[in-house]
Amino acid sequence: MKNNYNEMYTDNGEVREIYGRYSHWLKELPDGTLERRNTEAELLFRRLGITFAVYGETDDAERLIPFDIVPRIFGAAEWQRLELGLKQRVRALNAFLHDIYHDQEIIKAGLITAHQVLGNSLYRPEMQGIDLPNQVYAHIAGIDLVRVAENDFYVLEDNLRTPSGVSYMVENRKTMMRLFHELFAKHTVEPVEHYPQMLLNTLREAAPPNVEYPVIVVMTPGSYNSAYFEHAFLARQMGVELVEGQDLFVHQQKVYMDTTDGPIQVHVIYRRVDDDFIDPLVFRPDSTLGVPGLMDAYRSGNVTLANAVGTGVADDKSTYLFVPEMIQFYLGETPLLSNVQTWRLSEPDDLNYVLAHLPELVVKEVQGSGGYGMLIGPTSTMAEIETYKQRILAGPAKFIAQPTLALSSCPTLVEAGIAPRHVDLRPFVLSGKDIRIVPGGLTRVALSEGSLVVNSSQGGGTKDTWVLED
Protein backbone atom coordinates (compact mmCIF):
# COMPACT_ATOMS: atom_id res chain seq x y z
CA MET A 1 0.00 0.00 0.00
CA LYS A 2 1.35 3.42 -0.96
CA ASN A 3 1.95 6.18 1.54
CA ASN A 4 -1.34 7.91 2.16
CA TYR A 5 -2.13 11.51 1.29
CA ASN A 6 -2.07 13.75 4.36
CA GLU A 7 -4.73 16.43 3.94
CA MET A 8 -3.07 18.91 6.32
CA TYR A 9 0.63 18.47 5.58
CA THR A 10 2.70 18.12 2.40
CA ASP A 11 5.37 15.44 2.07
CA ASN A 12 7.85 18.12 3.16
CA GLY A 13 5.94 18.71 6.39
CA GLU A 14 4.58 22.10 5.31
CA VAL A 15 1.02 23.02 6.20
CA ARG A 16 -1.30 23.04 3.19
CA GLU A 17 -2.84 26.42 2.45
CA ILE A 18 -6.38 25.31 3.25
CA TYR A 19 -5.29 24.43 6.82
CA GLY A 20 -3.12 27.54 7.29
CA ARG A 21 -5.33 29.54 9.63
CA TYR A 22 -6.33 26.44 11.58
CA SER A 23 -2.68 25.46 12.04
CA HIS A 24 -1.80 28.95 13.28
CA TRP A 25 -4.70 28.86 15.77
CA LEU A 26 -3.61 25.41 16.93
CA LYS A 27 -0.03 26.53 17.66
CA GLU A 28 -1.25 29.40 19.85
CA LEU A 29 -3.61 27.22 21.85
CA PRO A 30 -2.69 26.79 25.55
CA ASP A 31 -1.75 23.27 26.59
CA GLY A 32 -4.68 21.06 27.54
CA THR A 33 -7.31 23.18 25.75
CA LEU A 34 -8.21 20.56 23.15
CA GLU A 35 -8.42 17.81 25.75
CA ARG A 36 -10.78 19.90 27.92
CA ARG A 37 -13.01 20.76 24.99
CA ASN A 38 -13.01 17.14 23.90
CA THR A 39 -14.38 16.22 27.33
CA GLU A 40 -17.05 18.90 26.92
CA ALA A 41 -18.00 17.46 23.53
CA GLU A 42 -18.40 13.99 25.04
CA LEU A 43 -20.67 15.40 27.75
CA LEU A 44 -22.77 17.22 25.13
CA PHE A 45 -23.18 14.09 23.03
CA ARG A 46 -24.09 12.02 26.08
CA ARG A 47 -26.66 14.61 27.18
CA LEU A 48 -28.22 14.64 23.73
CA GLY A 49 -28.28 10.83 23.59
CA ILE A 50 -26.28 10.67 20.36
CA THR A 51 -25.75 6.92 20.39
CA PHE A 52 -26.02 3.94 18.10
CA ALA A 53 -26.80 0.31 18.75
CA VAL A 54 -24.30 -2.44 18.01
CA TYR A 55 -26.08 -5.55 16.80
CA GLY A 56 -24.84 -8.88 18.06
CA GLU A 57 -23.46 -7.54 21.34
CA THR A 58 -25.06 -8.02 24.72
CA ASP A 59 -22.95 -5.75 26.94
CA ASP A 60 -22.91 -2.00 26.44
CA ALA A 61 -24.58 -2.41 23.05
CA GLU A 62 -25.70 1.23 23.08
CA ARG A 63 -22.62 3.33 22.40
CA LEU A 64 -21.71 6.98 22.25
CA ILE A 65 -20.69 8.04 18.75
CA PRO A 66 -16.97 8.86 18.96
CA PHE A 67 -16.53 12.48 17.82
CA ASP A 68 -13.21 14.04 16.87
CA ILE A 69 -12.96 17.78 17.46
CA VAL A 70 -10.35 18.45 14.75
CA PRO A 71 -12.29 19.49 11.63
CA ARG A 72 -11.68 18.22 8.11
CA ILE A 73 -11.36 21.16 5.69
CA PHE A 74 -12.16 21.49 1.98
CA GLY A 75 -11.78 24.48 -0.31
CA ALA A 76 -14.70 25.86 -2.32
CA ALA A 77 -13.30 24.91 -5.75
CA GLU A 78 -12.47 21.40 -4.58
CA TRP A 79 -15.97 20.94 -3.20
CA GLN A 80 -17.61 22.26 -6.38
CA ARG A 81 -15.85 19.56 -8.42
CA LEU A 82 -17.07 16.89 -6.02
CA GLU A 83 -20.60 18.26 -6.07
CA LEU A 84 -20.80 18.10 -9.86
CA GLY A 85 -19.66 14.47 -9.81
CA LEU A 86 -22.09 13.52 -7.06
CA LYS A 87 -25.07 15.07 -8.83
CA GLN A 88 -24.12 13.35 -12.07
CA ARG A 89 -23.85 9.98 -10.38
CA VAL A 90 -27.18 10.24 -8.56
CA ARG A 91 -28.98 11.39 -11.72
CA ALA A 92 -27.70 8.29 -13.50
CA LEU A 93 -28.64 5.97 -10.63
CA ASN A 94 -32.20 7.33 -10.56
CA ALA A 95 -32.42 6.94 -14.34
CA PHE A 96 -31.22 3.34 -14.00
CA LEU A 97 -33.83 2.56 -11.36
CA HIS A 98 -36.63 4.06 -13.46
CA ASP A 99 -35.41 2.09 -16.48
CA ILE A 100 -35.18 -1.32 -14.84
CA TYR A 101 -38.70 -0.98 -13.50
CA HIS A 102 -40.03 0.18 -16.88
CA ASP A 103 -38.57 -0.47 -20.35
CA GLN A 104 -35.23 -2.02 -19.29
CA GLU A 105 -33.37 -0.33 -22.13
CA ILE A 106 -29.98 -0.86 -20.50
CA ILE A 107 -30.59 -4.62 -20.52
CA LYS A 108 -31.74 -4.57 -24.15
CA ALA A 109 -28.59 -2.63 -25.04
CA GLY A 110 -26.48 -5.41 -23.51
CA LEU A 111 -24.67 -3.15 -21.04
CA ILE A 112 -25.87 -5.16 -18.08
CA THR A 113 -27.35 -8.65 -18.04
CA ALA A 114 -30.93 -9.48 -17.17
CA HIS A 115 -29.61 -11.88 -14.55
CA GLN A 116 -27.60 -9.11 -12.87
CA VAL A 117 -30.79 -7.04 -12.48
CA LEU A 118 -33.78 -9.39 -12.44
CA GLY A 119 -31.90 -12.14 -10.60
CA ASN A 120 -30.78 -9.78 -7.86
CA SER A 121 -32.52 -10.53 -4.56
CA LEU A 122 -33.00 -6.76 -4.02
CA TYR A 123 -34.92 -6.33 -7.29
CA ARG A 124 -38.63 -5.91 -6.53
CA PRO A 125 -40.92 -7.06 -9.38
CA GLU A 126 -43.79 -5.41 -7.46
CA MET A 127 -42.35 -2.04 -8.57
CA GLN A 128 -42.56 -2.84 -12.27
CA GLY A 129 -44.50 -0.15 -14.15
CA ILE A 130 -45.10 2.14 -11.16
CA ASP A 131 -44.64 5.79 -12.12
CA LEU A 132 -43.12 7.90 -9.36
CA PRO A 133 -43.21 11.69 -8.96
CA ASN A 134 -40.27 13.29 -10.83
CA GLN A 135 -39.11 9.72 -11.67
CA VAL A 136 -37.08 9.81 -8.45
CA TYR A 137 -36.38 6.56 -6.60
CA ALA A 138 -33.48 7.52 -4.34
CA HIS A 139 -34.64 10.79 -2.77
CA ILE A 140 -31.82 10.55 -0.22
CA ALA A 141 -28.50 9.07 -1.29
CA GLY A 142 -25.33 8.71 0.74
CA ILE A 143 -22.33 8.37 -1.59
CA ASP A 144 -19.16 7.16 0.13
CA LEU A 145 -16.00 8.81 -1.20
CA VAL A 146 -12.34 8.13 -0.47
CA ARG A 147 -9.39 10.32 -1.34
CA VAL A 148 -6.01 8.97 -2.39
CA ALA A 149 -4.29 12.16 -3.60
CA GLU A 150 -4.93 15.84 -4.20
CA ASN A 151 -8.06 16.19 -6.37
CA ASP A 152 -8.16 12.39 -6.68
CA PHE A 153 -11.36 10.97 -5.19
CA TYR A 154 -13.04 7.62 -5.78
CA VAL A 155 -16.56 6.41 -5.07
CA LEU A 156 -16.35 3.48 -2.68
CA GLU A 157 -20.06 2.65 -2.64
CA ASP A 158 -23.55 4.06 -3.20
CA ASN A 159 -26.11 3.94 -0.36
CA LEU A 160 -29.60 4.26 -1.80
CA ARG A 161 -31.86 2.32 0.55
CA THR A 162 -31.88 3.97 3.98
CA PRO A 163 -28.57 5.87 4.20
CA SER A 164 -27.82 7.06 7.72
CA GLY A 165 -25.45 9.47 9.44
CA VAL A 166 -26.79 12.87 8.45
CA SER A 167 -27.92 13.68 12.00
CA TYR A 168 -24.32 13.31 13.15
CA MET A 169 -23.24 15.73 10.42
CA VAL A 170 -25.63 18.36 11.79
CA GLU A 171 -24.91 17.70 15.47
CA ASN A 172 -21.15 17.70 14.85
CA ARG A 173 -21.43 21.20 13.44
CA LYS A 174 -23.58 22.43 16.33
CA THR A 175 -21.05 21.06 18.81
CA MET A 176 -18.09 22.63 17.01
CA MET A 177 -19.79 26.04 16.85
CA ARG A 178 -20.55 25.85 20.54
CA LEU A 179 -17.02 24.82 21.59
CA PHE A 180 -14.91 26.66 19.01
CA HIS A 181 -16.75 29.89 18.23
CA GLU A 182 -13.41 31.69 17.85
CA LEU A 183 -12.44 29.29 15.06
CA PHE A 184 -15.59 30.11 13.10
CA ALA A 185 -14.73 33.79 13.46
CA LYS A 186 -11.45 33.05 11.63
CA HIS A 187 -13.00 30.89 8.88
CA THR A 188 -16.02 31.42 6.64
CA VAL A 189 -17.52 27.94 6.71
CA GLU A 190 -20.45 26.95 4.50
CA PRO A 191 -23.47 25.97 6.65
CA VAL A 192 -24.99 22.49 6.96
CA GLU A 193 -27.64 23.27 9.59
CA HIS A 194 -30.29 23.81 6.89
CA TYR A 195 -30.19 20.15 5.82
CA PRO A 196 -33.50 19.28 7.58
CA GLN A 197 -35.25 22.11 5.71
CA MET A 198 -33.74 20.91 2.43
CA LEU A 199 -34.92 17.39 3.20
CA LEU A 200 -38.41 18.68 4.00
CA ASN A 201 -38.54 20.56 0.69
CA THR A 202 -37.40 17.45 -1.16
CA LEU A 203 -40.09 15.33 0.49
CA ARG A 204 -42.74 17.92 -0.30
CA GLU A 205 -41.71 17.77 -3.95
CA ALA A 206 -42.11 13.99 -3.84
CA ALA A 207 -45.81 14.21 -2.92
CA PRO A 208 -48.39 12.69 -5.26
CA PRO A 209 -49.58 15.10 -7.99
CA ASN A 210 -52.14 17.76 -7.07
CA VAL A 211 -51.43 17.55 -3.33
CA GLU A 212 -50.78 21.15 -2.36
CA TYR A 213 -50.06 20.66 1.35
CA PRO A 214 -48.69 17.13 1.79
CA VAL A 215 -48.64 15.45 5.18
CA ILE A 216 -45.20 13.96 5.73
CA VAL A 217 -44.06 11.46 8.36
CA VAL A 218 -40.82 9.71 9.28
CA MET A 219 -41.42 5.97 9.69
CA THR A 220 -39.05 4.17 12.09
CA PRO A 221 -38.77 0.49 13.03
CA GLY A 222 -38.68 1.67 16.65
CA SER A 223 -36.37 2.71 19.45
CA TYR A 224 -34.25 -0.45 19.24
CA ASN A 225 -33.05 0.38 15.74
CA SER A 226 -29.37 1.40 15.51
CA ALA A 227 -30.27 4.72 13.84
CA TYR A 228 -33.28 5.61 16.02
CA PHE A 229 -31.61 8.79 17.27
CA GLU A 230 -31.42 9.98 13.68
CA HIS A 231 -35.06 9.10 12.92
CA ALA A 232 -36.27 11.11 15.93
CA PHE A 233 -33.82 13.94 15.21
CA LEU A 234 -34.95 14.42 11.60
CA ALA A 235 -38.65 14.24 12.45
CA ARG A 236 -38.16 16.85 15.18
CA GLN A 237 -36.07 19.13 12.99
CA MET A 238 -38.55 18.96 10.08
CA GLY A 239 -41.54 19.42 12.37
CA VAL A 240 -43.25 16.21 11.22
CA GLU A 241 -44.53 13.17 13.07
CA LEU A 242 -42.30 10.21 13.92
CA VAL A 243 -44.39 7.07 13.46
CA GLU A 244 -44.12 3.32 13.60
CA GLY A 245 -46.02 0.94 11.36
CA GLN A 246 -48.72 0.43 14.00
CA ASP A 247 -49.52 4.18 13.86
CA LEU A 248 -50.58 3.94 10.20
CA PHE A 249 -53.34 2.10 8.39
CA VAL A 250 -54.65 1.82 4.83
CA HIS A 251 -58.23 2.46 3.82
CA GLN A 252 -59.42 2.49 0.20
CA GLN A 253 -55.84 2.57 -1.08
CA LYS A 254 -54.92 5.60 1.01
CA VAL A 255 -52.64 5.76 4.04
CA TYR A 256 -53.84 7.34 7.26
CA MET A 257 -52.20 8.19 10.56
CA ASP A 258 -54.06 7.70 13.82
CA THR A 259 -54.15 10.92 15.86
CA THR A 260 -56.08 12.16 18.88
CA ASP A 261 -58.12 14.25 16.44
CA GLY A 262 -58.94 11.28 14.26
CA PRO A 263 -57.35 9.80 11.12
CA ILE A 264 -55.23 12.11 8.92
CA GLN A 265 -54.21 11.12 5.42
CA VAL A 266 -50.45 10.77 4.87
CA HIS A 267 -48.96 11.65 1.48
CA VAL A 268 -45.21 11.11 1.92
CA ILE A 269 -43.46 8.56 4.13
CA TYR A 270 -39.74 8.99 4.73
CA ARG A 271 -39.31 5.40 5.67
CA ARG A 272 -36.36 3.96 7.54
CA VAL A 273 -37.81 0.45 7.40
CA ASP A 274 -36.29 -2.06 4.97
CA ASP A 275 -38.25 -3.36 1.98
CA ASP A 276 -38.80 -6.80 3.46
CA PHE A 277 -40.69 -5.39 6.43
CA ILE A 278 -42.66 -2.56 4.83
CA ASP A 279 -45.89 -4.46 4.03
CA PRO A 280 -46.65 -7.94 5.43
CA LEU A 281 -49.24 -8.54 2.70
CA VAL A 282 -46.57 -8.30 -0.01
CA PHE A 283 -43.21 -9.08 1.55
CA ARG A 284 -42.48 -10.83 4.85
CA PRO A 285 -45.82 -11.94 6.34
CA ASP A 286 -44.30 -12.10 9.84
CA SER A 287 -43.33 -8.41 9.84
CA THR A 288 -44.81 -6.34 12.64
CA LEU A 289 -42.94 -3.20 11.52
CA GLY A 290 -44.87 -2.45 8.34
CA VAL A 291 -48.34 -1.40 7.26
CA PRO A 292 -50.70 -3.95 5.67
CA GLY A 293 -51.83 -2.65 2.29
CA LEU A 294 -49.10 0.01 2.02
CA MET A 295 -47.85 -1.28 -1.34
CA ASP A 296 -51.36 -1.17 -2.74
CA ALA A 297 -51.65 2.50 -1.77
CA TYR A 298 -48.19 3.10 -3.21
CA ARG A 299 -49.02 1.44 -6.53
CA SER A 300 -52.20 3.52 -6.71
CA GLY A 301 -50.17 6.73 -6.49
CA ASN A 302 -51.80 7.93 -3.27
CA VAL A 303 -48.63 7.93 -1.19
CA THR A 304 -44.92 8.33 -1.92
CA LEU A 305 -42.24 6.31 -0.16
CA ALA A 306 -38.80 7.86 0.21
CA ASN A 307 -36.69 6.08 -0.66
CA ALA A 308 -38.64 3.98 -3.12
CA VAL A 309 -39.05 0.27 -2.67
CA GLY A 310 -36.53 -1.61 -4.82
CA THR A 311 -33.65 0.86 -4.74
CA GLY A 312 -31.35 -1.78 -3.26
CA VAL A 313 -30.63 -3.32 -6.64
CA ALA A 314 -28.75 -0.12 -7.54
CA ASP A 315 -26.56 0.03 -4.45
CA ASP A 316 -25.67 -3.65 -4.52
CA LYS A 317 -21.88 -3.80 -4.70
CA SER A 318 -21.98 -5.93 -7.84
CA THR A 319 -24.17 -3.33 -9.59
CA TYR A 320 -21.72 -0.63 -8.49
CA LEU A 321 -19.33 -1.76 -11.22
CA PHE A 322 -21.75 -0.60 -13.93
CA VAL A 323 -22.38 2.97 -12.71
CA PRO A 324 -19.80 4.55 -15.08
CA GLU A 325 -21.60 2.82 -17.99
CA MET A 326 -24.95 4.09 -16.63
CA ILE A 327 -23.65 7.67 -16.69
CA GLN A 328 -22.60 7.32 -20.31
CA PHE A 329 -25.77 5.43 -21.30
CA TYR A 330 -28.40 7.65 -19.67
CA LEU A 331 -26.67 11.04 -19.60
CA GLY A 332 -24.25 10.80 -22.52
CA GLU A 333 -21.51 12.14 -20.25
CA THR A 334 -18.07 11.06 -19.09
CA PRO A 335 -18.08 10.14 -15.38
CA LEU A 336 -16.63 12.90 -13.21
CA LEU A 337 -16.02 10.56 -10.26
CA SER A 338 -14.31 7.21 -10.77
CA ASN A 339 -15.09 3.84 -9.26
CA VAL A 340 -12.47 1.90 -7.35
CA GLN A 341 -11.08 -0.98 -9.42
CA THR A 342 -13.31 -3.93 -8.57
CA TRP A 343 -13.19 -7.68 -9.23
CA ARG A 344 -16.43 -9.65 -9.54
CA LEU A 345 -15.88 -13.01 -7.95
CA SER A 346 -18.69 -14.51 -10.02
CA GLU A 347 -16.27 -14.21 -12.97
CA PRO A 348 -13.79 -17.16 -13.06
CA ASP A 349 -10.76 -15.04 -14.03
CA ASP A 350 -11.52 -12.46 -11.33
CA LEU A 351 -12.05 -15.22 -8.77
CA ASN A 352 -8.73 -16.87 -9.57
CA TYR A 353 -6.88 -13.56 -9.33
CA VAL A 354 -8.48 -12.63 -6.02
CA LEU A 355 -7.87 -16.02 -4.43
CA ALA A 356 -4.21 -15.70 -5.37
CA HIS A 357 -3.93 -12.19 -3.90
CA LEU A 358 -6.19 -12.25 -0.82
CA PRO A 359 -3.47 -10.86 1.53
CA GLU A 360 -3.34 -7.70 -0.61
CA LEU A 361 -7.04 -7.03 -1.17
CA VAL A 362 -10.28 -5.96 0.52
CA VAL A 363 -13.16 -8.39 -0.02
CA LYS A 364 -16.80 -7.43 0.66
CA GLU A 365 -20.19 -9.07 0.55
CA VAL A 366 -22.16 -7.60 -2.36
CA GLN A 367 -25.16 -6.85 -0.13
CA GLY A 368 -23.22 -6.12 3.04
CA SER A 369 -23.11 -2.82 4.93
CA GLY A 370 -21.75 -1.22 8.08
CA GLY A 371 -18.29 -2.71 7.69
CA TYR A 372 -19.57 -6.18 8.59
CA GLY A 373 -18.48 -9.27 6.67
CA MET A 374 -15.33 -7.69 5.20
CA LEU A 375 -11.83 -9.07 4.80
CA ILE A 376 -9.01 -6.53 4.84
CA GLY A 377 -6.14 -8.65 3.62
CA PRO A 378 -3.13 -6.61 4.79
CA THR A 379 -4.38 -6.49 8.39
CA SER A 380 -5.68 -10.08 8.60
CA THR A 381 -3.91 -13.18 9.87
CA MET A 382 -3.29 -16.13 7.57
CA ALA A 383 -5.89 -18.09 9.55
CA GLU A 384 -8.50 -15.35 9.01
CA ILE A 385 -7.65 -15.23 5.30
CA GLU A 386 -8.01 -19.00 4.97
CA THR A 387 -11.38 -18.98 6.76
CA TYR A 388 -12.62 -16.17 4.50
CA LYS A 389 -11.36 -18.03 1.43
CA GLN A 390 -13.63 -20.93 2.30
CA ARG A 391 -16.59 -18.51 2.54
CA ILE A 392 -15.76 -17.20 -0.92
CA LEU A 393 -15.50 -20.68 -2.42
CA ALA A 394 -18.91 -21.57 -0.96
CA GLY A 395 -20.55 -18.75 -2.96
CA PRO A 396 -18.23 -16.59 -5.11
CA ALA A 397 -21.06 -14.50 -6.58
CA LYS A 398 -21.77 -13.10 -3.11
CA PHE A 399 -18.47 -11.19 -3.06
CA ILE A 400 -16.48 -8.47 -4.79
CA ALA A 401 -12.87 -7.46 -4.16
CA GLN A 402 -11.01 -4.17 -4.38
CA PRO A 403 -7.40 -3.06 -3.90
CA THR A 404 -6.41 -1.83 -0.46
CA LEU A 405 -6.51 1.92 -1.07
CA ALA A 406 -4.13 4.32 0.57
CA LEU A 407 -6.93 6.37 2.14
CA SER A 408 -6.08 9.97 2.90
CA SER A 409 -5.52 10.94 6.52
CA CYS A 410 -6.55 13.94 8.59
CA PRO A 411 -5.21 15.29 11.89
CA THR A 412 -7.15 13.65 14.73
CA LEU A 413 -7.05 14.05 18.50
CA VAL A 414 -5.89 10.79 20.09
CA GLU A 415 -4.46 9.97 23.53
CA ALA A 416 -0.93 10.88 22.44
CA GLY A 417 -2.04 14.23 20.96
CA ILE A 418 -2.83 15.08 17.35
CA ALA A 419 -1.97 12.35 14.85
CA PRO A 420 -3.06 11.40 11.30
CA ARG A 421 -5.93 8.94 10.97
CA HIS A 422 -7.60 7.56 7.84
CA VAL A 423 -10.93 9.09 6.74
CA ASP A 424 -13.69 8.77 4.18
CA LEU A 425 -16.60 11.08 3.35
CA ARG A 426 -20.34 10.51 2.98
CA PRO A 427 -22.06 13.50 1.34
CA PHE A 428 -25.87 13.37 1.32
CA VAL A 429 -27.53 14.00 -2.04
CA LEU A 430 -31.22 14.97 -2.10
CA SER A 431 -33.24 14.44 -5.29
CA GLY A 432 -36.57 16.14 -5.90
CA LYS A 433 -37.42 18.47 -8.76
CA ASP A 434 -33.76 19.48 -8.42
CA ILE A 435 -30.72 17.83 -6.84
CA ARG A 436 -29.45 19.45 -3.65
CA ILE A 437 -26.37 18.86 -1.53
CA VAL A 438 -25.32 20.65 1.64
CA PRO A 439 -21.64 21.63 1.39
CA GLY A 440 -19.81 19.00 3.38
CA GLY A 441 -21.08 15.67 4.62
CA LEU A 442 -20.19 13.12 7.26
CA THR A 443 -16.46 12.50 7.59
CA ARG A 444 -15.86 9.14 9.22
CA VAL A 445 -12.49 8.48 10.81
CA ALA A 446 -10.70 5.27 11.76
CA LEU A 447 -9.54 6.04 15.29
CA SER A 448 -7.07 3.16 15.59
CA GLU A 449 -3.62 3.80 14.16
CA GLY A 450 -3.27 2.24 10.71
CA SER A 451 -6.91 1.10 10.58
CA LEU A 452 -8.82 1.56 7.31
CA VAL A 453 -12.26 0.71 8.76
CA VAL A 454 -14.14 3.92 9.51
CA ASN A 455 -17.58 2.50 10.34
CA SER A 456 -18.87 3.42 13.80
CA SER A 457 -19.97 -0.19 14.27
CA GLN A 458 -16.32 -1.18 13.85
CA GLY A 459 -14.83 1.42 16.22
CA GLY A 460 -14.69 4.44 13.91
CA GLY A 461 -15.70 7.99 14.77
CA THR A 462 -16.89 11.14 13.01
CA LYS A 463 -15.61 14.65 12.30
CA ASP A 464 -17.12 17.99 11.35
CA THR A 465 -16.53 18.62 7.63
CA TRP A 466 -15.83 22.22 6.65
CA VAL A 467 -16.19 23.66 3.17
CA LEU A 468 -14.69 27.15 3.15
CA GLU A 469 -16.28 29.86 1.07
CA ASP A 470 -14.16 31.56 -1.62
Fold and architecture overview:
This protein is an alpha+beta fold and 470 residues long. The protein has two domains: 17-208 and 303-338 and 405-467, no CATH class; 341-403, Dna Ligase, domain 1, CATH 3.30.1490.270. It has 14 helices and 23 strands. It has helices spanning 20-27, 33-48, 76-100, 105-108, 114-118, 166-179, 181-186, 195-205, 228-238, 294-299, 312-315, 323-331, 348-356, 382-394; strands at 51-53, 62-64, 67-74, 140-149, 152-159, 216-219, 241-243, 248-251, 254-257, 264-266, 268-271, 304-306, 338-339, 343-344, 361-365, 375-376, 399-403, 409-414, 417-426, 428-431, 435-437, 442-445, 461-467. The chain has a five-stranded mixed sheet with strand order 3-23-22-19-18. A five-stranded mixed sheet has the order 13-5-4-20-21. Helix 3 (76-100) crosses helix 12 (323-331). The longest helix is centred in the first third of the chain and has 25 residues, at 76-100.
